[in-house]
Design goal:
elongated, mainly beta
């Protein structure tokens, strides 16, 4: 998921990334402005996968989003 904040920057240590109700480890790539979901046992389900993301910036603002990806 692409994510960036041009003013204060993301507080990537507080990012929460959940897929299909399972919280994973968010991995942030500051060069590509990408947050990746990592969970050693994760396998996407056939059909719809629900992604939930909570991304705070260093000023304390929080963006939350939820969307569905078909596999």
């Amino acid at each position: 998921v692409r994510a960036f904040d041009l003013e204060t920057g993301l507080d990537f240590n507080k990012v929460v990334f959940v897929v299909n109700g399972v919280r994973g480890i968010p991995e942030y790539d500051p060069f590509g402005n990408v947050i990746r979901y990592h969970h050693p046992e994760f396998r996407p389900v056939r059909g719809e996968n629900v992604l939930e993301l909570r991304v705070p910036d260093r000023a304390g603002n929080v963006t939350e989003t939820r969307f569905t990806v078909r596999h």
